[in-house]
Amino acid sequence: MKVVVTGSRGKVGRAATQALVDQGHDVLGVDLVRPVFDAGEVIPGRYQMADLTDAGSAYAVVAGADAVVHVAAIPQPTGNPPHVVFQTNLMSTFNLIEAAVRFGVKRFVNISSESIVGNFFPERPFLPSYAPVDEEHPLLPQDPYALSKHFGEQLMDAAVRRSDIRAISIRPSTVHNEDNYEVNLGKQVRDPSVLSGNLWSYIDVYDLADAIVLATESDLPGHEVFYIASPDNAGGHDFAEILHRYYGDQIELRQLDRVDASGISTAKARRLLGWNPTRSWSDYLDNDGHALS
């Protein structure tokens, strides 16, 4: 297929682009980074610089595509003014899905976020109702990033109601690769008292890229939403024990697939997408959270 990948020069975008190229797809990468005209840097697929908050640019890159994988976004609410985060994320998604509907694109893969629950950057903190969190958990976003992802998923719902496009929204857990496992995840591996909104969950960027390929190639109808996280938690701790130790009875514990389970359930992705993650934090770090030599 001819696939457009937005945010193709970022951590997730690069991995997704390479995985799609490896599967034989004709990929056009799109990002705000200037094109490379010399042979010094090799990037997979074709590339075009574009600001997707501009509707004309979105229409230009989507024309002729069979599928769109929308990764591009400001990835959290804290590094930019709130209105910039919300406008950038929401308008880029709106422009792309609008263009995809008008051009008759078959598949739209929308990269959403685990933050959509709302407990990651709240002004009034709260905890998940139960764990592992799954796609049925209530969404209570407060911050501009979580809100932009929530509205982005609603744009997917609207698109499938008014057209024949098929959409999948992927909600990745915190994404890591070989360059940042130690700095991002090392502290949680050696000390589970380092808490986070995702209850010790994470995802390897290459497992996420595999899920993106499956979503791009999927024929699932309508709009489906999937959490994507590694099956184990950071550090391989006894999940039931650490959940009770640090949260008491504030979070309902539901059935676990394994003792060292993640705080996010990916049963739906395994069932409907056929996704089978194969990588773990332990491929990169020792039990003290330090990089393997």
Please tell me about this protein's structure.
The chain has helices at 11-22, 55-62, 82-103, 144-162, 181-190, 205-217, 239-247, 267-273; strands spanning 2-6, 26-31, 46-49, 67-70, 107-111, 130-131, 166-172, 175-176, 203-204, 223-228, 252-253. It is of the alpha/beta class. The protein has a single domain (2-179, 201-229, 266-271), classed as NAD(P)-binding Rossmann-like Domain (Rossmann fold), CATH 3.40.50.720. The strands form 3 sheets. It has a 7-stranded parallel beta sheet with strand order 3-2-1-4-5-7-10, sandwiched between helices. Strands 6-11 form a two-stranded parallel sheet. The longest helix has 22 residues, at 82-103. The N and C termini lie far apart (39 Å).
* Unreliable runs: none
Give the total of domains: 1
Distance between the termini: 39 Å
Secondary-structure content class: alpha/beta
Domain NAD-dependent epimerase/dehydratase: 3-218
Protein name: Epimerase
Organism: Conyzicola nivalis
Give me some keywords for this one.
single chain; 293 residues; alpha/beta; Rossmann fold; 7-stranded parallel β-sheet; two-stranded parallel ribbon; 8 helices; globular
Short description:
With 293 residues, the chain is an alpha/beta fold.
How is the secondary structure organized here?
Elements: E1 2-6, H1 11-22, E2 26-31, E3 46-49, H2 55-62, E4 67-70, H3 82-103, E5 107-111, E6 130-131, H4 144-162, E7 166-172, E8 175-176, H5 181-190, E9 203-204, H6 205-217, E10 223-228, H7 239-247, E11 252-253, H8 267-273
Parallel strand pairs: 1-2, 1-4, 2-3, 4-5, 5-7, 6-11, 7-10, 8-9
Helix pairs in contact: 1-6, 2-3, 3-4
